[in-house]
Amino acid sequence: MPGPELIATLRFDGAGLIPAIAQDWLDGAVLMVAWMNREAIEHTLATGEVHYWSRSRQELWHKGASSGHFQHVRGLRYDCDADVLLLTIEQTGAVACHTGARSCFYEEGAEATAGGPDALPPPADVCTELARVINGRRERPEPGSYTNKLLEGGDNRILKKIGEESAEFVMACKDDDPDAIAGEAADLIFHLQVALAHHGVDWRRVQEVLAERRGAPRRE
User: Fold this and answer.
1) Angle at 26 between CA 84 and CA 19, to 5 degrees
2) Burial, 184: exposed, middle or buried (Cβ in 10 Å; 0-12, 13-18, 19+)?
């Protein structure tokens, strides 16, 4: 995390404000955009919880103070022009939008919706998007779907495929074929995600475990 000295580097607008993008620390999804001034940045860096500046109320806004949906800072960067901030945050309660949606960016059609918990999720990294598709197949089976055939076969079929794909990945590595290695790795990840979906384990939990292991003591 940078220190408060970075404030001198930033380019604020005529009102003393700078836009701040809040991005999920695990899947990279954009959750919201708000404004910060010097005071908001100072409070954010000092407390580790995001503070914004409310233009409508003309006051400091501690995100989550009233809703409980706090944003804990994992990282802070600014762009090449130093006039936009990118906050990498851990969102309490998985709700960033005032409507109750995970992200403020849930609209894609011509007509606005009400948002809320059932709103369209924000775009995320490709593995997260894949997990969403697989879970969608589990909840809404489609005729002829390979994913549904695996899920219908249960552990016997799913684990057999994971064993096969693992062996093919090993052989691709032994052959030192970069394209084959990438392809087999993709196949393996897909089948692992099918197994996770079958057992009701969310892909995000895997991301959390990986994140928790960063900086952990080295294993001998």
Assistant:
1) 15
2) buried
| Contacts for 158 with CB less than 8 Å, ≥ 6 apart | 150, 151, 191, 194, 195, 198
Listed as ranges, residues in the chain with pLDDT below 70 are: 1, 216-220
How much is the pLDDT for 2? Answer: 76
**Residue from 168, 175, 220, 219 nearest 191 by CA:** 168
φ/ψ of 42, rounded to 5, equals -60, -45
Q: Residue 176: which region, alpha, beta or left (left: phi > 0; alpha: psi -120 to 50)?
A: left
Residue 160 pLDDT: 98
**Could you give phi then psi for residue 164, rounded to 5 degrees?**
-65, -45
Return the structure tokens found at 174.
């032994």
Distances (CA, A) of 43 to 47, 49, 52, 73: 6, 8, 9, 11
